[in-house]
């Protein structure tokens, strides 16, 4: 290597010579290659300094070093250089996609990362909580409000409201901090199969004029010969795919990017006769890679605009090797790329069918994607050696607390579990917040995988909002997702919020789970229940009526006790009324809750009085009491130090009772 | 790149010039480096053709390109070149380790692999079944019998029988096929964090004289200043670690390797005065990296012998960059390596404490290792694009059958599940086969994660051998392992064989699981039970006595029916005698099995007659009969096409009954 102080001229001269000698064997898009004699001990290498492909002369094959006798060497940015990545993310499902993408990125990365996330309120809420609890070293996250950027793109015709988010890629040079000179922009449906630093390193190959690095489209969509009557937007050849973009923000700003793209969009796209635009809709939505189906009103995507600009100014683009955006759509030509390449870098699920797309090698790509869907994200909390990056203050505190624990402590396992900060993914599935109603109640509970089959029954018994914390591994979270999708009962409910708390440690963090579910309840009252408890069919209505009747809302500190019963039978038909319930009790098919093992836990409920009662009555707290209660949402949280079995609820009821005496 | 036909001289000349200009800045062990200007668009590269470190001149730092201003480029062998890897593997626990190692290797590999496994009978049985059912494309596995190699190394003093296996690395040049010229030899306690092809590519850097590539030891053990009275074996400096070895087998054979190592071992090690050897024992067993504890008889490891040879013939070794064998022992100096390196390639758990070793960054390394422990091995069944490698015939048949399925078929899910070939890891945990006894019975059952808590009770109720199939994900298999380790009852039993069948698909492959468990039973009889069924305490003895009494062994085709009962109560005290059982039946606490839902399934057992019976009696098969039976081990298998719920056992009993009529 060249020592630090050495004049650069010497190394540069050597490389120049290599270039002269062998440069003429190379074609555009090739970065750096090596040829090796089969079996022989030596190696022959062909090398190339950054080279500008001639304006407009887009090579037919963007494979880079994808000939079989030629493998790419790996240039890398300096160790510890901070890499910037921008993504636009809106809604629940896209948030899940982003997390999988980030997992794949973190798995291979060796550099500190700064993620710039343009989000709607839903995605921000989810991702802020996630990254805060994930505590990955050397990852910084900044959020940008998509709502604020909307006016800049909302004038562009778009079929779906969601199409607006796609257009926000265009305004990143203005939206990201002015000091930020370079950024990698990613669609949320890509998966990394290599170190993102290798992609970042391609910035070095930009000529002075180039501002955008893109991979060519791997379908003939923009060539216009895919379907009858199909006339695509203007583009250079197959056009470029915008799933993976290298942006020189500094140069874009200098070049007056905002004006440039707005002018091009107006002149090239919006002025076309309306009839010729009707066909564009689906093709554009499919990012140039999918099937054109149906007709609709006009819609223009960011990809269309990028391509129209590039057609006007071909010198702006640096074509990237195809392996950095292997596009998996139905009509993909990607096989030309990956079957020759030694290595795949990024795969792009750019069909609307996503993982259900059909192509010859989809199993292979699906496996790559599933790898990160199921990957235990806790394992990515690993530091970067030799890159000094102060951990977040919480992580540092935690490390110190953990270091203080004694290995001899018989409660070591408990103390470790108490200190564990679990990764939390709130509203894992699409969720509609309930409309504001003054006496509404959310059922709050927590569960793990083995209680999944309770969910359908619970939904049948409780027609109101629910906030449920699920203690799962990453792989189990995917199983849970499929479980909900396969259930008509569960899919029909938008008012059930599922919050995934990722498993870590050997003890069940019951109160941490309860607190997550409680914190996410959006109604003024919560019913602090258990997953094994099936509410009577009328309970939701009855509770709301009782809250109103008892005027709980008017500053009165009180908890409503819901009497609980249990059966020791596997098969049991649920009572429809208090009369039926009493009959079952008398027949010995039902018992008052835990009356065999833990009578003191429920004694103060006074079941004898309850039998006769026609209206709510007041009960007196006593030691060990742990009833199921309805309380205002802002009531005290559970003590998270209780992990595993025992006392977790008793302690909470003690505190609730103490609070009522304070009032 | 250079085109195929081009004279090589031109490229070589260019590289030579680069070498002359900048070669003098390089130091031994550096392979190829690159320097990049921070933030600038260009790059400066220093390059080096394969270079022989001078004899005996071992560089102080084997870090290769591990300075912060210098990152390694990645040379690779030709695409699709077959890479050879050898490992020595004996016993149950090491087999698990090998699989994790192989998973990490397969995750990053892009080349076809040929694994050469020297195994004992136990490991061969496990790994043959595993690779056969894994069906990974472009992976070939050859087995070599460790028993046959033993005589070649058994004369070397060794403390443990297991130490002999470690010594077998020395005889690989003779044991592997004569046509095999190069091989990578791995300890089973390493984990890959990169593509093994990069390691293979280092063969290109061997000089004509070099035959072994090794990484230096990352502890001061061989320097002899770690403990008082500690005098290590002869070695060059810190010596070399033999966890990762590149072997030029062809040259070793030519050079008379067998004589060389035997002579060195005899002259350098075995002739040392016995007193000075006593201290070696632990250090040697710990691979030069662990703590010396205790004293014992003399033991010499392969590593000791390799180091003694290298001390005599330093020209034989090519020192490899430290990142190819990051050694994680208590006194490791590895931080010097990995904190500077841009990239870690292979980690080596060379402390006897393995993952429980303490060092500053062990969490980081543990996470890397856990990644592959928990990794879904099914996802590694991915083909290598552009490398034509015919899949195993079974895999091809399977592909064809799957392709024939119609998407419209309402039974699609069932048919897919029926065709699924599950990866099978037999005897996942250490297991002692039962001594041969003519009337012995193995309890056979299958379960998934949610029934784990049945195992302890089952062990208490059944003191005999068991063969259990567990349907688990890779991550669950690790949880299961911890579950057994944490249970005194389960850990104490060596006669329970656990066979992991890896999950794939949505339906429970009940009969495939039963067949796996049945095939692995080693006694002449099997009790075909269910995991939810608790045998009466005396059943094991009673069955063996009955088998003897009824002379089942003498060619008589008969099945013994074990009457079953059920309780609908969560809490239940198990009857100790038939009298107690009858009392519970009369009290309504027990029922005859499934008498509520499926009386015909057990009706032919004739429970009324059973009440009165004092001795076994004959029952008559009737439709839908599905009793629990004891049969000879070689009885018909279950029909694997039954997946999910229903008819799976009924069909088997039909076949058993039909077979008795044939006799």
Automatic annotation (TrEMBL), chains A, B:
Q: List UniProt keywords, sorted A-Z.
A: Glycoprotein, Glycosyltransferase, Golgi apparatus, Manganese, Membrane, Metal-binding, Multifunctional enzyme, Signal-anchor, Transferase, Transmembrane, Transmembrane helix
Recorded GO MF terms: glucuronosyltransferase activity; metal ion binding; xylosyltransferase activity
Location of this chain's protein in the cell = Golgi apparatus membrane
Record's superkingdom?
Eukaryota
Its cofactor is: Mn(2+)
Entry-linked Pfam families = Glyco_transf_49, Glyco_transf_8
Catalytic reactions of this protein: 3-O-{beta-D-GlcA-(1->[3)-alpha-D-Xyl-(1->3)-beta-D-GlcA-(1->](n)-4)-beta-D-Xyl-(1->4)-Rib-ol-P-Rib-ol-P-3-beta-D-GalNAc-(1->3)-beta-D-GlcNAc-(1->4)-O-6-P-alpha-D-Man}-L-Thr-[protein] + UDP-alpha-D-xylose = 3-O-{(1->[3)-alpha-D-Xyl-(1->3)-beta-D-GlcA-(1->](n+1)-4)-beta-D-Xyl-(1->4)-Rib-ol-P-Rib-ol-P-3-beta-D-GalNAc-(1->3)-beta-D-GlcNAc-(1->4)-O-6-P-alpha-D-Man}-L-Thr-[protein] + UDP + H(+); 3-O-{(1->[3)-alpha-D-Xyl-(1->3)-beta-D-GlcA-(1->](n)-4)-beta-D-Xyl-(1->4)-Rib-ol-P-Rib-ol-P-3-beta-D-GalNAc-(1->3)-beta-D-GlcNAc-(1->4)-O-6-P-alpha-D-Man}-L-Thr-[protein] + UDP-alpha-D-glucuronate = 3-O-{beta-D-GlcA-(1->[3)-alpha-D-Xyl-(1->3)-beta-D-GlcA-(1->](n)-4)-beta-D-Xyl-(1->4)-Rib-ol-P-Rib-ol-P-3-beta-D-GalNAc-(1->3)-beta-D-GlcNAc-(1->4)-O-6-P-alpha-D-Man}-L-Thr-[protein] + UDP + H(+); 3-O-[beta-D-GlcA-(1->3)-beta-D-Xyl-(1->4)-Rib-ol-P-Rib-ol-P-3-beta-D-GalNAc-(1->3)-beta-D-GlcNAc-(1->4)-(O-6-P-alpha-D-Man)]-Thr-[protein] + UDP-alpha-D-xylose = 3-O-[alpha-D-Xyl-(1->3)-beta-D-GlcA-(1->4)-beta-D-Xyl-(1->4)-Rib-ol-P-Rib-ol-P-3-beta-D-GalNAc-(1->3)-beta-D-GlcNAc-(1->4)-(O-6-P-alpha-D-Man)]-Thr-[protein] + UDP + H(+)
* Stretch forming the signal peptide: none
Record flagged with keyword Secreted = no
| Gene3D superfamilies reported in the protein's UniProt record | Spore Coat Polysaccharide Biosynthesis Protein SpsA, Chain A
* GO annotation terms (biological process): protein O-linked glycosylation via mannose
Membrane topology classification: Single-pass type II membrane protein
Its UniProt pathway annotation is: Protein modification; protein glycosylation
Any Gene Ontology CC annotation: Golgi membrane
Q: What does this protein do?
A: Bifunctional glycosyltransferase with both alpha-1,3-xylosyltransferase and beta-1,3-glucuronyltransferase activities involved in the maturation of alpha-dystroglycan (DAG1) by glycosylation leading to DAG1 binding to laminin G-like domain-containing extracellular proteins with high affinity and in a phosphorylated-O-mannosyl trisaccharide dependent manner. Elongates the glucuronyl-beta-1,4-xylose-beta disaccharide primer structure by adding repeating units [-3-Xylose-alpha-1,3-GlcA-beta-1-] to produce a heteropolysaccharide. Supports the maturation of DAG1 more effectively than LARGE1.
- Name the protein family: In the N-terminal section; belongs to the glycosyltransferase 8 family.
Q: Indicate what this protein is called per its UniProt record.
A: LARGE xylosyl- and glucuronyltransferase 2 isoform X14
